[in-house]
Amino acid sequence: MVTETQLPSLNTLDYLPYLNEQGIIPEEFQKKIGVYAIFDDNKQLKFIGYSRDIYASLKQHLVRQPEQCYWVKIEIINRPSRTILEEIKNNWTQENGDLSINDEANQKRWTQPIDAKICMTDEEKETYKNSDELAQIKLFKKVARRVQANIEETLNQRGNKMQIRFNPKLKEQGLLDLK
Asked: Looking at the structure, do residues 21 and 107 belong to the same domain, yes or no?
C-alpha cells in the first residue's frame, strides 16, 4: 500500500509548457498513464485529472479550454492503480487548497464535449423552434462549425501545430469533441 509520504507533491513537480516550441503537446506522454494538473498563463491551477493516455487527455482539454491550458505538471505512474491515481489527485487538490476545481460545473467544462448550442444566436434559436428535424440538424452543424472555427483560431494564435479533428457525428447534435 502506498503511503502519503510516497505520493508525489504537486509543488515539487516542474511546470512544463502545455505546447512545446514545435507547437505540440510533447509526444512522450502518448499512452502514458498518470495524473496531471493544468494551469493557466499565470500558473493558477485550473484542473487536475488522471488518464490512461495523458497525451490524448491533454489534447481534449486544450480544445475544450484553450484559454486555460498554458502549463502542466505530470506524474507518470508505471504500475497504475485507480486507487493510487485518485489518492494523488485528492492530495494535489488538498495541497492546492481550492476545492472548487472539483465541483461538477468545472469538471464538465474539462471532461464533457463542448455544447455549441449555447452559442446559438436569438435568430438561430427562433429558426430552430420553427424547423423540422432535418433543418434542426443542419442548424446544429452550422453552429458547431462556427464554434469549431473559433476554437481553431484561438489554438492557431497559441501556436498550435497539432492536427485537430472533431467528430462529425456529434456536430449533428450541436456538440464538439475530438475524434
From this structure: yes
Domain final residue pick, 75, 94, 111: 111
Query: Do residue 79 and residue 153 come from a single domain?
Result: no
Q: Three-state DSSP class for 74?
A: strand
Phi, psi of 18 (to 5 degrees): -60, -45
All three cell numbers of 120: 446559438
| DSSP state string for 117-130 | GGG--HHHHHHHHT
For every one of its 179 residues, what pLDDT tens digit does the chain have, with 9 covering 90 and above?
344 447 889 999 999 999 999 999 999 999 999 999 999 999 999 999 999 999 999 999 999 999 999 999 999 998 878 999 999 999 999 998 877 888 898 899 999 999 999 999 999 999 999 999 999 999 999 999 999 999 999 999 999 999 999 999 999 999 999 98
Domain count, the chain: 2
CB of 48 within 8 A of CB of 98? no
What's the rounded Cα separation, in Å, for the pair 96 and 159? Answer: 29
Q: Phi and psi at residue 59, in whole multiples of 5°?
A: -65, -45
Q: Which domain holds residue 136?
A: 114-176
Same domain, 24 and 72: yes
- Single pTM value for the model: 0.90
